[in-house]
Amino acid sequence: MKVNEKKWIRFRIYIVAVFFLFALSTVLSRAVQLQIIDKERLQKMARDGYRKVVPLPPKRGSIMDRDGHELAVSLEVGSVYAEPRRIEDKVGTARQLALHLDMPAGNILKLLKKDRGFVYIKRKIPSDKIENISQLRLQGIGFTKETKRFFPGKEIAGQLLGIVGDENQGLEGLEKRYDDLLRGEAQVLVQMKDAVGRPFLTSKPPEEKRDTHNLILTIDKDTQYKAEQALEKAVTKAKAKSGQCLVMNPETGEILAMATAQGFNPATETIAPAFNPNIFRGYKPDAWRNRVIADTFEPGSIIKAFLLAAAIDAHVVTPNTKFNCENGEYRVANRIIPDTKKYGILTAADIVVVSSNIGAVKIGNELGYENFYEYMCKFGFGQRTGIDLIGERDGLIKNPEGLGPVERANAYFGHGMTTSSIQLATAMAAIANGGRLMKPYLVKAVTDEAGKIIKEYHPQVVRRVLSPDTAKTVSRVLEDVATERGTARHAAIDGYRVAGKTSTAQKVDPETGRYSKRNYVSMFTGFVPANRPKLVILAMIDEPRGGYYGGVVAAPVFKDVGQWALANLRVQPQLILAENDTVSNSKKVSPGKKKEPVTEFKDVKEADAGKNRDGDILPDFRGLTMREVLKNISALGINITFEGSGRAYEQEPEPGVSLDNVTSVKVSFRPPA
Amino acid sequence: MLIVFLLILFMSSSIGYVWSNYEGTQIGFDLSRLQDDERALLELNKKLKVELATLKSPRNLEAAARSLGLKDAAPEQIVFLP
Questions:
Q1: Does the beta-carbon distance from B31 to A202 stay under 8 Å?
Q2: Residue B29's pLDDT is what?
């Protein structure tokens, strides 16, 4: 073989080798491009071809009342958005959307003309509207699913429940306080799809980063409604600025109702003309502020009840200790302390019943400010109750150090200190329940999505404030407040023993820094039934016009709410009806007796047994059930004959006769009208 | 004979495989549809609950009761059952 021929063969081999090398390089380059450089894009293309991602709207747990009735629920709704850069016929699109969205076409057009890739046209609208718009198949218009908060009771507990923002976040009230538990996160479902886009396999919903929970409140929606209704009525009648009403179970600290007038509906559909952080759906912050915890004011005369309790508990006075009330004027340092009426000698109990400022100062002087301060702190004044809400205020009670005699005297009748309604109701509950300060709370339980209880909240005793005997004694004194003798006869509830205290406190004028002669806080706080309290009710009317006394303006709210709530709780009416009747009957028998302004203290059991304070006479059984009659007659030790069924309407002998002459009683019953 | 038997076995296995694949896909479609239905029904159930809660709200009940001429019961008209 010639040399040249060999070279030619080698050259051809090289050519082939280079060709294959080039081809291999090309294949490798392409592989690198497909497998490494364009990997993400191509994988996405492939996924889009066989996978469909369905976005699920973020969930939010429900809020329910104590019986499981829904107060706030989130539901799926649709939102319409646009991709303006993809829309060619913007005018036509705006016109068509306007027909279905109740929005002016001009406003929609403005949105469509924005140089943005994405813009919401209208959020959270009903699904039927979404359906109608989707059938139009408009270019560049799309839909997303979101959740919207619904409040089936409208304004019921509006301030308490609070506000949820458009991004599913709690902004106020319980919605904010328990946002961590209530709020869920957006989820996606991944589906496999076939060539024509039909889904045929769906992945399990991914594990949520954040579980949603439901809240079960201590609130009773019916009591809440009644409290709001009675408060609204009183505020309107008094032409007042606002009002508050709180209903609490004194034994547990559970809040059954927390109402603020005027009402606030967090779901109101109002379009604000422009974004304003201080306006929410047409409401200003004043409307959604929960005044029961966030507003503090000078409590006024109601403090006398706690002053008396402190003085009795410290063994400084007894209810029958007498004080000279100086005929309506008493000088402390350079200031005259006035009373609304001229009182002479009054017992400590009567000082509270008739609400004498001078008497309160004298009791306070006996107790000493240091002891008073200590007891007020034990009652929880000047510190947060710890209720599970955001925005609670501390209130203020002045430290004894460096405090002058006038400031001390003022504090004894509730001036120069501030409290919130929740503090007052909690402190009154301590008197009602035998001396224990309970921590008020609003959430009874937390459940998971399926409704299974995962956490329960129980009553918490903060501390003992009074001995049970002191609490019982003060309760008996406070019972007289809601009688003809006291300042709150309008708070009396037929058939039940009511105890409480009124308050009418002047407000400080922010302009002058002095007490206003026009603006008052009128209040009644009490509990019922007085001997076995089931409810503590606070009614407060802020700046009433015309009549402003707490016993006139606020006490009717207590009566309305209490009467209704007691029936709702199925608390049997007590013997006090018959007792009152027998008292009046006995007065007819012995007209010579004159009523003295002295509170007498008898054992509760004695009163319950139907015995009159002036002697043993036959009680009035009319209006009572058979069970109640039997219970009372057994204590008297006489025979009884029943006739009929229902409620007692007639008895033989007549009520009021001396028991010495009675050996048996015949009681006739009939069904109630 | 053996070849015929093996052929039939192969054919039936193939048909069985295709059939089970087809059924699997169909079940996938059904499952997906039923899951959609389930979500829709759960949401409808929630909406109906809200509707019921709205109708049962004290304000609506009171308005309905008053329109029928009902009044608040006086204390003496209330009978507590044991």
A1: yes
A2: 84
**Could you tell me which chain A residue has the CA closest to the CA of B50?**
A152
Residues A499, A467 within the same domain? yes
Task: Give chain A's radius of gyration (CA, Å).
Answer: 37
Reported ipTM: the value is 0.76
Provide the token pair at A419. Answer: 């409290």
Tokens 């718009």 belong to which residue?
A: A133
The rounded distance, in Å, linking the Cα atoms of A359 and A341 is 12
CATH number, domain containing residue A437: 3.40.710.10
Q: How confident is the model at residue A598, as a pLDDT?
A: 33
**CB spacing of A76 vs B80 below 8 angstroms:** no
Nearest chain B alpha carbon to A153? B57
**% of chain A residues with pLDDT over 90:** 41
Number of residues that this document lists for chain B? 82
- Residue A244 Ramachandran class (φ > 0 left, ψ -120 to 50 alpha, else beta): beta
Q: Which B-chain residues 24-43 have CB contacts (< 8 A) with chain A? A: 25, 28-29, 31-33, 35-36, 43
B57 with A154: Cβ contact below 8 A: yes
Residue with tokens 């002087």: A365
Considering its fold, how many domains does chain B have in total? Answer: 1
Neighbours of A39 (CB within 10 A): 12
CA A273 – CA A123 distance, rounded (Å):
16
In a domain, A234, yes or no: no
State both tokens at B45. Answer: 């159930």
Identify the burial level of A396 via C-beta atoms within 10 angstroms of its C-beta, where 0-12 means exposed, 13-18 middle and 19 or more buried. middle
Q: Does B35 fall in a domain?
A: yes
Q: What gap in Å lies between CA A208 and CA A204, rounded to an integer?
A: 11
Amino acid making up residue A149 = R
pTM given for the model: 0.75
